[in-house]
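User: Sequence in, structure out. Go.
Assistant: Echoing your sequence, followed by the structure tokens.
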Amino acid sequence: MNEPSAAASGVAVALLLCSDRAAAGVRDDATAELLAPVLAAAGHRLATTRVVADDRALIEAALRELAAAHAVVLTSGGTGIAARDVTVEATRAVIERELPGIGEAMRARSLLVTPMAMLSRATAGTLRGALIINLPGSPRGAVECLEVVRPVLTHAVRLLADAVRDCQAEVGVRAPKDQSR
């Protein structure tokens, strides 16, 4: 079950590392270690880290399980175009609503660092009140992309928990001035 409160502090976040080499114990992954302080700065905590091979069925099952127990599920890896990159397909298979703007924002920011960002297929979406976000497999890239998403994380979690009554009042968004006069 997701956290009962979607308040800014203490939101439970899970990290699903999707990597054949990490799952086989051939490669250590520093992603969790690097993401934890970014999450803490947003008032969230990395509660769970799990590693699975680049296998669509395994990723789908892990996403469903983690989304049932966490407000946010981050994935790392499997967002490129190689044959074993299936995290995006697994994510799309389990989410109820896709949030393409998150992937678009991460790619736009990453393009400032590397042209390889054009090859990312990362997406995001919702599953039973949990937010799922695909991050790159590179630990540094995952941090860069989480930094892009960080300003909207708390608001998204609160929206999914039905804890927002007035978006404009909560986030301070003002309606554009009427330019037709």
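User: And one key feature?
Assistant: The first strand starts at residue 11 and ends at 18.
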